[in-house]
Amino acid sequence: MGATSPSSYQNHSLALVESSRFDMGYTQMQNSNNNNSNSNNNNNNNIMHLQHHGQSQQHLMLSGGKDDLCALAMFEDSVKKLKSPKTSPGPALSKDQVNSALDLLFDWFYETCGSVSLLSLEHRKFQAFLSQVGLPANLRREVSGGRLDARFGEAKAESEARIRDAMFFQLASDGWKSGGLFNFNSCCGGGESLVKFVVNLPNGSSVFQKAVFTGGVENSKYAEEVLWETVTAVTGSVVHRCVGIVADKFKAKALRNLEAQHHWMVNTSCQLQGLVSLIKDFNRELPLFRSVIENCLKVANFMNSESQVRSLFLKCRVQEMDCGGLIRVPSPKCDPLKNFQLVFPMLEDILSCARVMQMVVMEDGFKVMCMEDTLAREVAGMVQNEGFWNELEAVYSLVKLVRGMVHDVEAERPLMGRCLPLWEEVRSKVKEWCGKFNIVEGAVEKIVEKRFRKNYHPAWAAAFILDPLYLIKDASGKYLPPYKCLTREQEKDVDKLLTRLASREEAHVVLMELMKWRSDGLDPLYAQAVQMKQRDPVTGKMKVANPLSSRLVWETCLSEFKSLGKIAVRLIFLHATSCGFKSNWSFMRKFSANKQSRVALERAQKMIYIAAHAKLERRDFSSEEEKDAELFAMSGSEDGMLAEVYADAPLV
């Protein structure tokens, strides 16, 4: 028993740690405890006799089998604790050291809110670890008590101070749209959404405000009320400080109604949702998508459901790709033509298994089946048809193109002036796609323009004209606003919007200053300073060196434009997306669904606030799931290095 049971009792799952090291550490601890025990005691002699007996016989006969060794080791530990109740299993820490360690531990727990469950703190292995390093093991009450209130108070006070320090801000609301296009775990049905509210400040930072459950109610009137209540909660009586709202839904009614009621506001829809909706438009309106999806469903279902074909497919996939698994197919409960996020994995699998499927249809067993089964012949015909693969690649490439832009928008978090160039980039890339795959441009361009008009806001054109980042150098060396990039209607939109945002007394002054800005532009030295770029060390892409300079130049070098400048600084800082950061707050949904007590919900809200505050402080807009996927996707030497790190890590 001496070598077997302690390691089994201590840890069953430390697969990355050498068991010999663990056994040695445990044996040393056991020997230390044995030296502190009274060797003349009869009970202790009995335990030592059991140990000696286990060592002398490799196969100890216990009625419960080898699993009894764990219970026997626990029994032995209980006797030793009774004999030496004052013996501490870990080093003694001072009170200050304990408090400091607990502060760090609770900060980690709060900031990873949702990733680590509250119940994890009561796991016996974790509590054993705390005891081993000299920390109190019972933390459940403390984690939701005074420390939580104090940490929440600090974060709340810091956020409120930063909002007070800003002259104006934008409210971002994200979560009205439940589930993203590439969130393949989202269900087809509805369900209540967790809506997050973030305050975007002129200095480029963002502050978390709150998270609200919709309770399944998602009509525009309800959204309008919640949005305005949030605005008044942040501003108090000075509602003019909120210069706009960006949200991922309700542009047609809620945002537009609030804008009509409060003339100083600019309320826009999220550009990220606009691009996601564009893929849905393609799926719904392009006949190519319908044809490819129907054909792929026929092929995938046949490969997965027919036992003989399934066996051939799995065998060939292992031979060709060194991995198994069937094709991912959407649930029959969902309409694939309306839920493209459920179809995309199937397209990926079929495209990656092109060679495998061609091997399957060439197998003798499949050829015999084709003589008797018309569906088998039809599937074989599609798999061997070059047109089928060309159409599939065309659909996949278009989705991949737009998805790449979605990821870029998520990473860059563009401002309002970027919207028009962004959609011009969409048009250009879609046109290239049409040429590559011999697709008629007319129908595709019509879909793009329709989505553009749905998302368009006059503030796009105004911010594009006023942001010095987009000034164009003319033949004389002047840096002038890019009016030549606007349509005639967009030029009119700029005048109308600026007139609406200005006070009645300043409206004519704003238009006069706009004419001067159009003719004179910005001093070349300052324009070049604003447009200066540097390489991002992470992505390798060229980015603007100082994004805040666009606003700062209006408040300093262009102070002569007194009326236009006040509007310009409020327009060009506005964010074009509402996606602040990603989070995993599934535990909060459970609280809401189970109708927990008010106190429990308040505690959960405080944990959410602390976690969101920390994420925005770090400007961390990624999700834990994405980071985990990147970590475990490492290959080659990186995997070996990771294994060495875990293997060499000390146990305590």
Description:
By secondary structure, this protein is of the alpha/beta class. 60% of the residues lie in helices and 6% in strands. It has helices at residues 5-10, 19-36, 42-56, 68-83, 95-111, 124-132, 140-143, 146-165, 220-235, 251-261, 271-285, 287-305, 307-321, 340-352, 354-361, 364-372, 374-383, 386-412, 419-436, 441-455, 458-466, 488-501, 507-520, 524-530, 549-555, 562-572, 586-593, 598-618, 624-632, 637-648; strands at residues 169-174, 194-200, 206-213, 242-247, 266-269, 472-473, 479-480, 533-535, 542-544. The strands form three sheets. Strands 3-2-1-4-5 form a five-stranded mixed sheet. Helix 12 crosses helix 13, helix 12 packs across helix 14 and helix 19 packs antiparallel against helix 20. The protein is flat, with a radius of gyration of 32 Å.
Write the layout of secondary structure elements.
Elements: H1 5-10, H2 19-36, H3 42-56, H4 68-83, H5 95-111, H6 124-132, H7 140-143, H8 146-165, E1 169-174, E2 194-200, E3 206-213, H9 220-235, E4 242-247, H10 251-261, E5 266-269, H11 271-285, H12 287-305, H13 307-321, H14 340-352, H15 354-361, H16 364-372, H17 374-383, H18 386-412, H19 419-436, H20 441-455, H21 458-466, E6 472-473, E7 479-480, H22 488-501, H23 507-520, H24 524-530, E8 533-535, E9 542-544, H25 549-555, H26 562-572, H27 586-593, H28 598-618, H29 624-632, H30 637-648
Parallel strand pairs: 1-4, 4-5
Antiparallel strand pairs: 1-2, 2-3, 6-7, 8-9
Helix pairs in contact: 8-28, 9-10, 11-12, 11-18, 11-20, 12-13, 12-14, 12-17, 12-18, 13-15, 14-18, 16-17, 18-19, 19-20, 21-22, 22-23, 25-26
